[in-house]
Amino acid sequence: MGQSHISNNVRNLRFNHHEMTQQQLADQVGVTRQTIVAIEKGKYSPSLELAFRIARVFKLPLEDVFTYEGADSTNK
Amino acid sequence: MSYQEKKNIVSLISTVLIFGFYCLYVYERFKDTILEGEALFRFWGAVILILIPITIVAKIIIEIIFIIINRIATREVEPSFADELDKLIGLKAMRTSYFVFILGFLLAMGALVLQMPPATMFIILFLSGFVSEVAGIVSQLYLYRKGV
């Protein structure tokens, strides 16, 4: 529970994307603002579908938005 | 504090108040009544069944009042749908709630095995219903605060 191994730069991308608000992003991807807040704080790892929808809003590949930090330790 | 957190706090307070006032009412009204046999089972059946519609109606009224007050105070519009995070938290909270209720149910059955009076079994069952609901709400509140 709590912090996950998946980090993201949604917050930075929002600001670089015409200072998009959390509510605007939430409306575009079809979730509540609370969910965007939780994703940005790392309190919730979104479903694959939602992650793709967020990446699509910023016109970026998924890996540029979300990073799996536990990859090295689990692959060994 | 998010809308969901505020809603859960209101729900927690209303659950405690409704259950508390209902228990107080039942106790005041029937404290001098001695029930045995079939009458005892009928009494507890009625106590549990009547609490359900009272809780539903009271919670709906309290939620409407909360929405109105929250809208006036914060101008925040309540979410019109439950998204994947809400559903996930709801499911996890329900699991906690069921677990607590099953624990209460087992305790109630244990009371019968230990030859305690049937009223004890009903009280444990009645309380476990309440505690499981509180556990579900607290669990939702915790998950909204700490994350999933």
Automatic annotation (TrEMBL), chain A:
Which Pfam families did the record assign? HTH_3
Where does the HTH cro/C1-type domain lie? Answer: 20-65
**Any idea which UniProt keywords this protein has?**
DNA-binding
At the top level, the lineage of the source is Bacteria
Q: What is this protein called?
A: Transcriptional regulator
What is the source species? Paenibacillus harenae
